[in-house]
Amino acid sequence: MSSTVSAILSATPTPERVINGLNWTFDDLYNILPQWVKDWILNKQLGVFNFATVSLIVGGIVVLKFLASVIALLYTMFLTSKTNYITKYKAGYGAWAVVTGASQGIGREFALQLAEKKFNIFLLARNKEKLDELARDIQQAYNVEVIVHPFDFAEADDEDWDKLEDTLLANDREITILVNNVGINQPYPNPFAEEDPDLLTSIVTVNCTAQVRITRIIFPEMVRRHKGLILNVGSVAGLFPNAFLAVYSGTKAFLRNWSRALALEGEAMGVEVQHVKTYYVSTAMSKMKPTSLAPTPEAYVRKVLATGGAFEDDAPYPQHMAFTWAIDNILPEGALMQKAYELNIGIRQRALARKKRLEEAEATAAKKE
Ligand SMILES: NC(=O)c1ccc[n+]([C@@H]2O[C@H](COP(=O)([O-])OP(=O)(O)OC[C@H]3O[C@@H](n4cnc5c(N)ncnc54)[C@H](OP(=O)(O)O)[C@@H]3O)[C@@H](O)[C@H]2O)c1
């Protein structure tokens, strides 16, 4: 046993301290330090570098880091919001944007607004009727080409993926934008142990595997042409662990890490990869009415596209940006996890009560018939 470990053990007389490191006091920490460090702290040997000076230097670094984050927040919020990076991906020159989960919500809006900017649009989702209707709307309003490709990201087999690859890359199609928007969640927060295992597997398949597979088809083509943008629609639920939405939260954390690593790889190859930190948006998934915190998909996507390609990890909507800044810089993760835990329990209780009321109403109606 090393002398440090024995020092730690000898300084932890109660079992509580061994189990919960948070109960350690400053004195406990001080007592396990080697004598030369104690001497250093007490300024017995190191002259000008006394404890106060060291504290000042460390404190100064912390304050500077904090100020830098505030300046970065204000810069992204106000200075970059009016730029239009997205047109550099050859808008109006026959380039294509591929949008997954395009039949409704945020994905539908990406398709509409990218068409408005004169990209041809490749639409993917399961509901063919909704996609056909959207394709008609886009063609009438913006006179660009549209391809509808009904696709189930949860159920697709290798043959479906091969067909998708062939269609995407047919005629040497130049795809300069891929919006990895498709994502699914539990209908309401539920304990992992009670949730349908097939649904949990589908969440991983759609939110992780599908994103990797479609990107692996398109990314090398973008590298070949030295031009492209991959927009990965993430979630605040991926920024810290969310109990009762544990798998969704885990998949969005995967999306963020994968996305940021790919951004670094893509940088030298002319491909921008951007992870978009999304908080609430008023859609079928959030079941929320529009508010200042939960914008409409239209307002949300406008902000995303204004800075599309400018940052590798972005929260383009101002209210979401402020919240994610607070998560990164001032809110302790433990407190966030606890708050999400309580919030999700509340949402679950209300959802179960609503479900019960609906079932009772249906039973009453059935009796009357
Ligand atoms: N809304 C929010 O508050 C919020 C917050 C944070 C992050 N996000 C993220 O934003 C993205 C879009 O969410 P949203 O709110 O717009 O969701 P939404 O309204 O539920 O739309 C989801 C889209 O994905 C498609 N889809 C679902 N399962 C699919 C599957 N197996 N195969 C192919 N397509 C499928 C749906 O179309 P079909 O049914 O036709 O297939 C639909 O077009 C997601 O990644 C979500 O995690 C949303």
UniProtKB/TrEMBL annotation:
<keyword id="KW-1133">Transmembrane helix</keyword>
<dbReference type="GO" id="GO:0016491">
    <property type="term" value="F:oxidoreductase activity"/>
</dbReference>
<dbReference type="InterPro" id="IPR002347">
    <property type="entry name" value="SDR_fam"/>
</dbReference>
<dbReference type="InterPro" id="IPR036291">
    <property type="entry name" value="NAD(P)-bd_dom_sf"/>
</dbReference>
<keyword id="KW-0521">NADP</keyword>
<comment type="pathway">
    <text>Lipid metabolism; fatty acid biosynthesis.</text>
</comment>
<dbReference type="Pfam" id="PF00106">
    <property type="entry name" value="adh_short"/>
</dbReference>
<protein>
    <recommendedName>
        <fullName>Very-long-chain 3-oxoacyl-CoA reductase</fullName>
    </recommendedName>
</protein>
<feature type="transmembrane region" description="Helical">
    <location>
        <begin position="48"/>
        <end position="75"/>
    </location>
</feature>
<dbReference type="GO" id="GO:0005783">
    <property type="term" value="C:endoplasmic reticulum"/>
</dbReference>
<dbReference type="InterPro" id="IPR020904">
    <property type="entry name" value="Sc_DH/Rdtase_CS"/>
</dbReference>
<keyword id="KW-0560">Oxidoreductase</keyword>
<keyword id="KW-0443">Lipid metabolism</keyword>
<keyword id="KW-0812">Transmembrane</keyword>
<dbReference type="GO" id="GO:0030497">
    <property type="term" value="P:fatty acid elongation"/>
</dbReference>
<keyword id="KW-0275">Fatty acid biosynthesis</keyword>
<feature type="transmembrane region" description="Helical">
    <location>
        <begin position="229"/>
        <end position="248"/>
    </location>
</feature>
<keyword id="KW-0444">Lipid biosynthesis</keyword>
<keyword id="KW-0472">Membrane</keyword>
<keyword id="KW-0276">Fatty acid metabolism</keyword>
<comment type="similarity">
    <text>Belongs to the short-chain dehydrogenases/reductases (SDR) family.</text>
</comment>
